[in-house]
Amino acid sequence: MARRSTARGGGAPEAADGYDGPREAATGRLKRPRAGSGGRWWVWVGRAVLWAFIIVVLVNGVWHPLREGIATPAAEEPAEQEEGGDFPETAAAAFAVRFAEHYLNVEEGGRKEREEELAAFVPEGDASSYEISGGPLTGTEIQVVRVEEADGNNAVVTLAADVNGAPMTLDVPVYAADPSSLVVSGRPALLAAPDKADLPEAPGVDVDTEARAELESMLPAFFEAYSANPDHLSQYVESGVRIAPLPADSLVFEKLDEVAVPARTAAAGDEDVRQAVAEVVWRVPGGSGGSDGEGATLTQSYQLTVVESGGKWYVRDVQGSLQALGR
């Protein structure tokens, strides 16, 4: 028989099976919890949110690169067109020079031959419109000055030339379908040559008289080796530096005319390096310009990078000077 427990001290009856949870009122049987009670439904909600987040991340991770791959060609297309549309300046310059050699040289009685020559440079059937009537015309010393690009297919090539002995420029419009397909797109124009500029006075600089005296005793030997004794050149050149000598028998050193050496500045650092300017008189062998029949002489200005080491000066570099001394 089932054992009953009685209430102690007027309290509620104690369950014989030790369960003190809810029971059905009529039968006293255990009451089964409902599904989702006790907070389990929050677990399912959390799982749903987590899976939604994972799906979003995966979709973005796959779609974003795919979208970039699809969009990239359209974005780069203008850049490719621009790169492919660059005007072929070198080819157009050479083309314009060849055209000008025929256009600027007119001989009497050679009209038909000239039209045939120009036909290779101008649109089909337009060669006669480039005819120059009248007396002879000569164009010499034709050189390229610049190429002004209008777009990827059109540019104006400016040439310098002596036209009938007078310096002028010639603007030639050129159309380029590609570097190998060019045509003169219109009549050229003769213009004035650039004016001669007035050279301003060189700014005054502090001169190092002591360094100048030392270089005046060293540089004649350097220039003599530079022109005639290349085997001795290295003893006047900074260690580790190579200076190419002049071609053999091209010039003969005559004298060092003048040397200018700027004073050392405080910002020069530990190494004593100067930019000296030297005027050198050369004699050209084999000519008849000199009074003694030994060749003409010419004076030239050089900018020398010189460095002092161990109490001696050495040449690091030699090149043309921007301005002659005394100007």
Number of DSSP helical runs: 4
Q: Considering DSSP H and I runs of 4 or more, what fraction of the residues is helical?
A: 25-40%
How many angstroms separate the termini? 136 Å
**How many domains comprise the coordinates?**
3
What is the arithmetic mean of pLDDT? 81
State the CATH architecture of the largest domain.
Roll
- Beta-strand residue fraction: 25-35%
Count of beta strands: 9
Roughly how many Å is the radius of gyration?
47 Å
CATH topology descriptor of the largest domain: Nuclear Transport Factor 2, Chain: A
- Which sequence of SSEs, written as H and E, runs from N to C? HHHEEEEEHEEEE
Q: Point out poorly predicted stretches.
A: 1-12, 71-84
Q: What class do helices, strands and sheet pairing give?
A: alpha+beta
The CATH class of the largest domain is: Alpha Beta
The global form is flat
Ordered list of secondary-structure elements with their pairings:
Elements lengths: L39 H45 L4 H15 L7 H8 L20 E11 L4 E10 L2 E13 L2 E4 L4 E4 L16 H19 L24 E9 L11 E12 L13 E13 L2 E9 L7
